[in-house]
Specification:
Elements: H1 4-21, E1 40-44, E2 53-58, E3 72-75, E4 80-86, E5 92-102, E6 107-110, E7 121-129, E8 132-138, E9 146-148
Antiparallel strand pairs: 1-2, 1-3, 2-8, 3-4, 4-5, 5-6, 5-9, 6-7, 7-8
Length: 150
């Protein structure tokens, strides 16, 4: 028989281990001017996206199954960017590019001009809270000063 105090300690240790294992690399809130904190892979949540507001969750989130996959993007170190789109036959197709942080606190996305060619665009962070990221995509040609590549 195990003493009750030992059971309580084991239960507390187990809770601590579970909390540590489930800890995300992303902060609870996005610090202003530090978009590098968003590094990682983000997948679109279409059911939570409305109008021009796009909602994303980290790829570690337990999504409901979608046969075609989920579009999204990855912000990597040294300004590396990968956009994931749903392929015509299902699955995902990746397109590599770069990202930089602008003086206005936006993400400037540059994808190489492959077929289909696409101009640079900006992603405006609207909200970030506990792994839920909301962005607005601006399609006009950016006219802002670039701070630095992350």
């Amino acid at each position: 028989m195990v003493p009750i105090s030992l059971c309580g300690r084991l239960a507390g240790l187990l809770c601590l281990l579970l909390a540590t294992a489930c800890h995300s690399d992303h902060p609870a809130e996005l610090p202003k001017g530090q978009l590098a904190a968003l590094r990682g892979t983000w997948l679109l949540v279409p059911e939570a996206s409305h109008g021009d507001t796009l909602t994303y969750r980290p790829n570690t989130y337990r999504f409901r199954y979608r046969p075609a996959g989920r579009p999204g993007f990855r912000l990597g170190p040294a300004g590396r960017f990968v956009r994931y789109d749903v392929a015509p036959g299902g699955g995902l197709v990746a397109q590599e590019g770069t990202w930089t942080e602008t003086s206005t606190g936006r993400l400037l996305i540059h994808l190489p001009e492959l077929e289909p060619a696409e101009p640079d665009y900006e992603l405006v962070p609207l909200a970030y809270q506990r792994g839920l990221l909301q962005l607005r995509r601006l399609v006009q040609r950016p006219a802002v000063e670039v701070l630095h590549t992350q």
